[in-house]
């Protein structure tokens, strides 16, 4: 007996020791001991090396492991990986995550595969080292190949969860990218997938070879393997962890389409009372009532069983033979029931009589208990709650909609219709339109809606609520309320100074008109005491022929009023020249001061698209939802000799862009672009790495779409040459027996040499190919595919890209606002680089572009010339820079035109007549100062207009200012000539003073100047209705500039002209000095001639120009000049 106990105890101890050994955590590999071609290589763990606690990791590595492999931390069994291994695994999983993260369950299962491989404390159970490599330099060895035993159930579950995951923006399955070289119609299986991930390839981030051994868990481990890796997986239609979503239907075929609105009629009880179906409630309720009646009747029968026979209650004895037996059983039972009800009723009445208080209190108690439930009574007037069941299809659809998209908006509706439906309006194209389109009816709609918009309400807490507080705004809070109304067809999208353009034009016109009336009234009041000898004649309308009619009479009166008030104004300026000069100067200074807020823009988006346009709204919504769109830099290269072709693989003739020389040039250009740097205003250096777009994360290279990225930016791979031995296959149409007729003759091997063209061809066929026929990857350095449609262009057929004749390089930059200044600085350096690069400028020894531009490296491009290649480029800011360049060049044009105009006006305004053979008399009647002042005043009017609108934050482009200067200059100079020449050609009636003559001139020219100013400014203001900001801004500036020009010419310039006329009179008669100071008096007379210029043009130039042969000559010369200009047009 003792022996048996000892044997049992010994067996138990052996089993315990064996179990303890089996649960020990032994590591197979640990830490990184070597870097091979940028790939971290793992080391063999020490013998009997146990798992380390998680706190042995760095803080960063521990956080990453907890995020990636939370299942390893359950139970705190330790880990078999170092911080370096965790960080390397995290980086490699991020690359796979860019493909698989669309399906969280797939990515989680994929992470478990590599978490167990890298950090599992049970590595010794399913991993075996097959090959190690010694490093003589460091006297260490690293693991180069291992066997990884994986449960077939796990691998199948992993494959099933990932097989339907698609690439973002493409229908291609993600695992095809991770399955090596596949033909177009070949599917990626789990074996292909694991084989590719286990094939060592440092270029694509597979550091060591892994021999995946799939083991069927039902049959047990294979011979030579102790155990296999198997951890729970998550199907793709389920969430892998708390807080993560399940896969979408697009990426998981196992996701069932859930019927959100079940229509199972007849089987589901939609009517419920007290938590049970209505039918069940009625059934149990009926049984309950029936049972209660029976119990109550039995209780009464028992209570009165001792009643005496003298109770006065007669009962029928059914056993008496006196009863007719022909009644039958049914009638007998009915008589018995009736007798029982009558009897128990009598008993109940007797009971109540005897216990009246008990009956009263019992009934009152039931009533009180039942009535107390009214404290929970809720009334509803909601039609939805009153007329639809909570389980109806409509209520279910509403509930699902609100859970998915939020509550549906509340609708307020007004319907208007005319009482007289016969009233119709003639519409366009002869269409008869209904009465609702009548202007009176539409006006009523505007009135009603405007009053509705002004409605406000007061809440219980005293807050005021308007429509703006509660309305629905689908475009965001910066936009108006959504109102479906015909009145919204007439919305005000054009605004000036905070009001609609039409309103601005209306009030502007009224303001100008009112100003003119007030000014005329002021002049009339000021000169109401004028004497009759003022020299001003006024028309007496009472003496006018009455046959003129009212309209003509009114027109003549208006014309006379304008002339009269013009004369009054001229007389006022002559008498108060300093006041007029200072008044105009004050307005000019105040207006011009607004230019300190002037903002120029060269952004095409701000210049050519309206802020209310659909494109701008869509852009705004896109950027609010997804962030700013990236900036695009693009280079296009194409060969000049399109006849040059290259023989490609499979006998395909490939375009000249695939020539090795051409591809080498693409490498050279791109390598130099990657070296571009710029210096910002604060001295910081900016390179492409600082501003580029990295879709795979900051640990990866910049996104560059280029054929050079098929070679991972390594130009030496163009020289690759691989010799492949291919076994000759029998012809499918020949007889197999004939093929092997000679048994002594072995099958021949076919030798093929593959080069860079085979690699490009494979990448065009499958841009996801990680291992082409040349053993290279098609993925770019940024970690993603490069679609051939984006890098090759000009093909004769879109499906045959091998016939392309253009090579395209596209570099997206990060478009975030925080990155904008740096991106624009780098783009500026890129533009300068291209100008120097394509121009072949020798920059050695030149400091033209050092410092802020930061493109000293352009010296390397000084002698770039290639006779067979042409290059074009465009940066995101190229259009803006070109606009800025043209505007800068136009500045010199404006300056030259102003100088020439000053010279022309100064010369043409004067009258150059020599009197008494004294050449100094030429200066007496010249108008040099008046001409220079007039051009300056024109410039002031343009500057004043810009300054006023700058105060209201309305910017413009430099191009608009250039045009504005020319327009205002043309209008203003014309008015200067009108004023001056009208004075010069005024007939001297004798004895008139300067005041009288200038007053007469103002009466003649001011009406036409006023009317032309009003018409020109209104025409320009009409252009402000345009949605295009550039046109709108120019129209506003030009319209106001014309008004300012009129004001300044009739105040500042007129005052200067008065002084000049007085000087001329003084020099001509007594005590005067000419325009340039002289010490003696010049006895000159008033010039009656119209001047040499007028005489030359009138007597010689004009008649000659009107000759037939001269007109033909001028026409031919101008046509030839125009054609020559077109020939040299860039």
From TrEMBL:
> TM segments?
280-303, 356-377, 503-526, 577-598, 891-913, 928-952, 959-983, 1036-1059, 1109-1129
GO MF term list: cholesterol binding
**Disulfide bond recorded as keyword:** yes
Q: Which residues form a coiled coil?
A: none
Does the record carry Nucleotide-binding as a key word?
no
Can you say where in the cell this protein is located?
A: Membrane
- The record places domain SSD at 890-1059
Classify the source by domain of life: Eukaryota
PANTHER family in the record: NPC INTRACELLULAR CHOLESTEROL TRANSPORTER 1
Protein name as it appears in the record: SSD domain-containing protein
Which species is this record about? Answer: Ancylostoma caninum
């Amino acid at each position: 007996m003792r022996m048996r106990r000892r044997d049992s105890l010994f067996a138990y101890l052996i089993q315990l020791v064996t179990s303890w050994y089996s649960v020990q955590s032994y590591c197979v590999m640990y830490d990184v001991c070597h870097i091979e071609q940028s790939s971290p290589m793992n080391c063999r763990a020490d013998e009997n090396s146990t798992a380390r606690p998680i706190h042995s990791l760095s803080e960063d590595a521990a956080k990453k492991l907890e995020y990636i492999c939370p299942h390893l931390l359950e139970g705190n069994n330790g880990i078999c990986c170092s911080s370096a291994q965790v960080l390397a695994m995290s980086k490699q999983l991020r690359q796979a995550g860019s493909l698989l993260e669309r399906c969280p369950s797939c990515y989680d299962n994929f992470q478990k595969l590599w978490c167990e491989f890298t950090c599992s404390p049970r590595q010794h159970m399913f991993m075996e080292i097959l090959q190690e490599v010694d490093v003589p330099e460091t006297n260490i060895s690293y693991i180069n190949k291992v066997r990884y035993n994986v449960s077939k159930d796990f691998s199948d579950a992993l494959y099933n969860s990932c097989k339907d995951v698609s690439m973002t923006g493409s229908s291609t399955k993600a695992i095809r990218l991770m399955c090596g070289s596949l033909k177009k119609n070949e599917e990626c299986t789990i074996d292909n997938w694991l084989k590719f991930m286990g094939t060592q390839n440092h270029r694509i981030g597979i550091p060591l070879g892994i021999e995946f051994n799939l083991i069927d868990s039902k049959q047990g481990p294979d011979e030579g393997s102790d155990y296999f890796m198997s951890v729970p997986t998550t199907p793709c239609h389920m969430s892998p962890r708390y807080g993560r979503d399940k896969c979408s239907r697009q990426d998981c075929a196992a996701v069932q389409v859930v019927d959100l609105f079940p229509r199972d009629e007849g089987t589901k009880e939609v009517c419920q009372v007290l938590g049970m179906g209505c039918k069940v409630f009625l059934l149990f309720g009926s049984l309950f009532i029936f049972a209660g009646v029976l119990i109550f009747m039995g209780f009464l029968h028992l209570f009165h069983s001792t009643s005496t026979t003298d109770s006065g209650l007669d009962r029928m004895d059914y056993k008496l033979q006196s009863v007719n037996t022909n009644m039958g059983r049914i009638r007998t039972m009915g008589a018995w029931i009736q007798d029982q009800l009558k009897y128990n009723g009598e008993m109940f009445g007797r009971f109540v009589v005897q216990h009246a208080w008990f009956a009263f209190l019992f009934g009152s108690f039931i009533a009180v208990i039942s009535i107390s439930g009214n404290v929970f009574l809720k009334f509803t007037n909601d039609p939805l709650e009153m007329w639809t069941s909570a389980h109806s299809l409509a209520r279910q659809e509403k509930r699902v909609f609100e859970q998915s998209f939020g509550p549906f908006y509340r609708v307020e509706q007004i319907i208007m219709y005319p009482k007289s439906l016969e009233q119709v309006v003639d519409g366009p194209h002869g269409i008869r339109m209904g009465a609702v389109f009548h202007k009176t009816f539409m006006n009523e709609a505007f009135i009603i809606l405007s009053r509705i918009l002004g409605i406000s309400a007061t809440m219980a807490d005293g807050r005021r609520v308007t429509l703006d507080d509660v309305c629905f705004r689908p475009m965001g809070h910066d936009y108006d309320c959504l109102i479906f109304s015909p009145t919204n067809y007439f919305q005000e999208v054009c605004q000036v100074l905070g009001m609609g353009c039409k309103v601005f034009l209306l009030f502007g016109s009224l303001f100008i008109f009112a100003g003119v009336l007030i000014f005329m009234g002021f002049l009339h009041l000021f000169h109401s005491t004028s004497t009759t000898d003022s020299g001003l004649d006024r028309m007496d309308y009472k003496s006018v022929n009455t046959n003129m009619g009212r309209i003509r009479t009114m027109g003549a009166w208006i014309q006379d009023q304008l002339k009269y008030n013009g004369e009054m104004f001229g007389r006022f300026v002559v008498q108060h020249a300093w006041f007029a000069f200072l008044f105009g100067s004050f307005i000019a200074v105040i207006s011009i001061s607004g230019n300190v807020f002037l903002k120029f823009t060269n952004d095409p988006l701000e210049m050519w698209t309206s802020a209310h346009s659909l494109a701008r709204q869509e852009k705004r919504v896109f950027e609010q939802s997804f962030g700013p769109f990236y900036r695009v830099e693009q280079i296009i290269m194409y060969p000049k000799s399109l006849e040059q072709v290259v023989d490609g693989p499979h006998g395909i003739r490939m375009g000249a862009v695939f020539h090795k020389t051409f591809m080498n040039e693409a490498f050279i250009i791109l390598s130099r672009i990657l070296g571009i740097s710029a210096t910002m205003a604060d001295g910081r250096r900016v390179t492409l790495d600082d501003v580029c777009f990295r879709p795979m994360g900051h640990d990866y290279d910049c996104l560059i779409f280029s054929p050079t990225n098929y070679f991972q930016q390594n130009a030496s791979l163009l020289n690759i040459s691989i010799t492949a031995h291919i076994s000759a296959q029998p012809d499918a149409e020949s007889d197999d027996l004939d093929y092997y007729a000679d048994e002594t003759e072995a099958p021949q091997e076919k030798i093929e040499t593959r080069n860079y063209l085979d690699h490009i061809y494979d990448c065009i066929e499958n841009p996801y190919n990680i291992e082409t026929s040349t053993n290279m990857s098609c993925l770019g350095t940024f970690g993603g595919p490069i679609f051939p449609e984006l890098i090759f262009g000009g093909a004769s057929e879109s499906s045959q890209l091998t016939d392309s004749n253009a090579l395209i390089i596209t570099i997206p930059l990060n478009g975030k606002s925080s990155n904008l200044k740096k991106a624009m600085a780098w783009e500026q350096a890129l533009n300068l680089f291209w100008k120097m690069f394509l121009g072949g400028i020798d920059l050695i020894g030149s400091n033209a572009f050092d410092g802020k531009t930061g493109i000293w490296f352009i010296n390397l491009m000084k002698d770039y010339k290639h006779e067979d290649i042409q290059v074009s480029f465009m940066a995101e800011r190229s259009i803006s820079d070109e606009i800025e360049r043209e505007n800068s060049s136009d500045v010199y044009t404006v300056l030259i035109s102003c100088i020439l105009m000053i010279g022309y006006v100064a010369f043409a305004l004067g009258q150059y007549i020599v009197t008494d053979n004294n050449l100094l008399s030429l200066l007496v009647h010249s108008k040099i100062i008046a001409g220079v002042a007039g051009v300056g005043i024109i410039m002031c009017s343009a500057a004043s207009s810009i300054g006023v609108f700058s105060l209201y934050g309305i910017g413009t482009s430099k191009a608009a200012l250039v045009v504005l200067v020319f327009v205002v200059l043309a209008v203003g100079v014309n008015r200067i000539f009108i004023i001056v020449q009208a004075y010069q050609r005024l007939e001297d009636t004798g004895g008139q003073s300067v005041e009288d003559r200038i007053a007469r001139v103002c009466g003649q020219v001011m009406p036409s100047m006023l009317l032309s100013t009003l018409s020109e400014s209104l025409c320009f203001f009409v252009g402000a209705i345009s949605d295009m900001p550039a046109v709108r801004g120019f129209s506003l500036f030009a319209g106001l500039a014309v008004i300012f020009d009129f004001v300044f010419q009739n105040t500042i310039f007129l005052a200067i002209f008065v002084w000049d006329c007085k000087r001329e009179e003084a020099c001509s008669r007594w005590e005067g000095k000419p325009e340039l100071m002289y010490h003696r008096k010049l006895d000159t007379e008033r010039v009656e001639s119209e001047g040499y210029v007028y005489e030359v043009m009138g007597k010689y130039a004009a008649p000659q120009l009107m000759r037939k042969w001269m007109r033909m000559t001028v026409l031919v010369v101008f046509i030839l000049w125009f054609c020559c200009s077109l020939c040299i047009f860039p």
